[in-house]
Amino acid sequence: MGTTTGSGFDTETLRRAIEGNTGNNLLSLYADDAEIRIVDRNNQPSHPTVLHGRGQIAELLDDVYSRDMTHKLDQCVVQGDRAAYSESCEYADGTRVLAESMVTLRDGKIADQLIVQAWDE
């Protein structure tokens, strides 16, 4: 049974979407006008990758979920209209990725997300 918060955000739905085989279920958790900022080794804090809207987010998710890798939701905390979660991923060759997300929720959907990620090199 999932935990639905006062914001209408269901953490079990998030888990199933992240750990699934396609990005479609995860995409359904985003508002139409959602924005994602991604910070990592190649996209420094002063110049993050910024995605606007579900179209650009769908392209990212299609790319990520087309790779030979697994995804696991490690932790998720929801408080009011904010949520934070940790995701760990592993490629078939053993390369690991860790992503931390802070999200703002609107009407039970992700409206804004900051992802900070690091991977094995």
UniProtKB/TrEMBL annotation:
InterPro entries: NTF2-like_dom_sf, SnoaL-like. Residues 17-112 form the SnoaL-like domain. It comes from the Bacteria. This is Nuclear transport factor 2 family protein. The lineage of its organism: Bacteria, Bacillati, Actinomycetota, Actinomycetes, Kitasatosporales.
